[in-house]
Amino acid sequence: MSADQKTLDVYDKYISDYKKLISKELKDANLDIFMKMIEGEGKVLDLGCGTGTASLELLKNGFAPFPVDASLEMIKVAEVLLGNKPRQISFDEIDEHEFYDAIWANFSLLHVKKNKFGEILKRLFFALKERGVLFFSLKRGEGESRDNLGRFYSYYEKSEIEKILEKACFRTKKYCEGASIGLAGKKENWMGFFCEKIR
User: Fold this and answer.
1) Predicted local confidence at residue 1, as pLDDT
2) Which residues face 24 on adjacent strands?
3) 28: Cβ–Cβ under 8 A, 6 or more apart, which residues?
């Protein structure tokens, strides 16, 4: 597993605080938009599933979620919520080929180092079916750094991501942005991309 160990240690240590934070969040409008884009009762990779809340919503709406996360404590909490155990793997261990109808990567790929981001997107490209949908969200900014809890983050602006998407053979169908307060207690700007494969 190649995930950043310091970041995983933070999530494992603060799992109770993370659960409380997630429980206070309102219904995710981006997840609703995402589900409307999926054809049929599709198979959805929940990449960096956290406590499993998105997978639960996908289940309730008739989809087949495949939750994965690199944090053992997140896996434990998600297993209780979902009734089955998510896979404990990192992003670079995704190796399916044209298997998923959609991929949901909400605030998870932001932990990938910039020099590895394009490579991960290519893995997701091959894992998606031809008409598959990819959603991912990132924090806006520049460079790479760790927050006050020790988690690693890569920061981007929209133009930078669009160039990376093009190289990975994705194009943006819909774009959104906003600001929210995360586990570290700091309000930060973010952006989200709903993407399709370039055929």
Assistant:
1) 56
2) none
3) 54, 57, 106
